[in-house]
From TrEMBL:
The chain crosses the membrane at residues 48-67, 73-92, 147-168, 188-208. Residues 349-439 form the Histidine kinase/HSP90-like ATPase domain. It catalyses: ATP + protein L-histidine = ADP + protein N-phospho-L-histidine. GO terms for molecular function: kinase activity. InterPro entries: HATPase_C_sf, HATPase_dom, Put_sensor_dom, Sensor_HK_TwoCompSys, Sig_transdc_His_kin_sub3_dim/P. This is histidine kinase. Its EC number is 2.7.13.3. Keywords: ATP-binding, Kinase, Membrane, Nucleotide-binding, Phosphoprotein, Transferase, Transmembrane, Transmembrane helix, Two-component regulatory system.
Length: 440
């Protein structure tokens, strides 16, 4: 374990790293409880609409799925069994798309559409593709599970409030026919029970909406293999684009910078050669001036080449992250506490990704966060590398907000890594990157 301080005085957070900024930005416990109560009682209109409108869709889809399974089992031993199942799976795919649209419109759960079916040549080949389509079978399972959830959701959103209204109005209903009936404990119990159950309805609707969101996300999206292929394709395209941009930038810098310096050096040496070959003898004063100029131009060219090659592979990484990261934090304008627990050295490619992720996150802190201090921790355990960067800035960072976090997430995805961002308004911001120590 290594704990050092770079870029300023030691922070008050100490070695534990558990300190939190204090002030009015963070709500007190009663305020937090009030927020939680408001969240519990607030139900979006789309969630109520999904519970009501979703019942016919649930009945249609569930009935279709059960009929398909029943008829498919009966026809499985006949000639028409497999064609029937194949056609039914295509229908399940379309119904899954309908439910996916409904979940996106009403619940706000926009599930990515799975890839379309391949169309090989030949009837039997196409039938085999349909029968082995994981997306269609998962959609069929969704339709079966959605049936009881749809009935339960409608009962919770419609039948339960109506029943509670009947219980609350029980003292009135029972006196419609007998106005002389005295009030009793049953009247009070019905009112209390009705109000108590009614207060639980919003929470129940929200809970069922959460279950429906997770079910749609799990069964109506692309299969895990397809999703992984898409992620890798997107990450590869991003890396190729980044590498192309870097090569073009390197070519431009070499042409406009280093090449121009070397041409100037060659001209200076040519002038020095002319000074040596002067008919009246070498002009030592002019020759000394030219050699001093050539020496300066050589230093400038070397410095330029070092600057250009630094982005290709940091020399500091030759000694591993334990040597590279302290040097990186030393250049940060924000004081950074660094904690290293490197039980094993990761793969060189993984080290490079971790190094540039740390550099990008520290740059974001300096440019956008307004933080007074930051903490960088890197650890390796169980075949994983974990990079954690925390700052006490203003917060509000998120993927896709133009601070480079989306690019980092795509770079991490290329090496089977993930990026998590926790940055509430007012801070603190915590960014965690996890990736394997070895490439598969």
């Amino acid at each position: 374990m290594t704990v050092t301080e770079r870029g300023g005085e030691p922070t008050a957070e100490g070695v534990s790293g558990r300190g939190h900024p204090t002030g009015t930005d963070h709500p007190t416990a009663p305020a937090a409880e009030a927020v939680q109560r408001r969240r519990y009682l607030s139900v979006r209109g789309g969630e109520w609409a999904f519970a009501v409108v979703g019942l016919p869709f649930a009945l249609l889809g569930g009935g279709y799925a059960l009929a398909v399974l029943y008829a498919g089992a009966l026809l499985s031993l006949t000639v028409v069994g497999l064609p029937f199942v194949a056609a039914a799976l295509l229908g399940a795919r379309r119904l899954g798309a309908l439910h996916r649209w409904l979940a996106g419109r009403l619940l706000g759960e926009y599930v990515e559409a799975p890839a379309g079916l391949r169309r090989p040549v030949g009837v039997f080949a196409r039938g085999r593709v349909v029968l082995t389509d994981a997306v269609a079978w998962r959609a069929l399972l969704y339709l079966v599970l959605r049936l009881p959830l749809g009935v339960l959701g409608f009962a919770t959103a419609v039948a339960l409030p109506l029943g509670c209204g009947w219980l609350v109005g029980f003292p009135l209903w029972i006196r419609v026919g007998d106005g002389t009936r005295p009030a009793g404990w049953l009247d009070a119990a019905s009112v209390v029970t009705g109000l108590a159950v009614l207060s639980a309805v919003p929470g129940a609707v929200r809970a069922l909406s959460g279950v429906n969101r997770r079910l749609a996300r799990l069964l109506l999206g692309p299969a895990r293999a397809q999703q992984r292929v898409r992620e890798l394709e997107s990450a590869r395209a991003t890396l190729l684009a980044d590498n192309t941009d870097q090569l073009r930038r390197l070519e431009r810098d070499l042409h406009d910078g280093t090449q121009a310096r070397l041409v100037a050096l060659a001209i200076t040496l040519s002038l020095a050669e002319d000074a040596l070959a002067h008919p009246a003898g070498p002009d030592l004063g002019r020759l000394r001036t030219l050699m001093n100029r050539a020496h300066g131009q050589t230093d400038d060219a070397i410095a330029e080449l070092r600057r250009l090659t630094r982005g290709i592979h940091p020399v500091a990484l030759d000694g591993g992250l334990g040597e590279a990261l302290p040097g990186l934090t030393a250049t940060s304008p924000v004081p950074v506490t660094i904690r290293l627990d490197l039980g094993e050295r990761p793969h060189p490619v993984v080290e490079r990704v971790v190094y540039f992720c740390a550099a990008e996150l520290l740059t974001n802190i300096a440019k956008h966060s307004g933080a007074r201090s930051a903490e960088l921790a890197v650890s390796t355990a169980d075949g994983r590398v974990r990079l954690r960067v925390r700052d006490d800035g203003r917060g509000g960072a998120a993927l896709g907000t133009g601070t480079g976090l989306t690019g980092l997430a795509e770079r991490l995805a290329a090496v089977d890594g993930v990026l998590r961002v926790d940055s509430p308004p007012g801070g603190p911001t915590v960014v965690v990157a996890e990736l394997p120590t070895r490439l598969r």
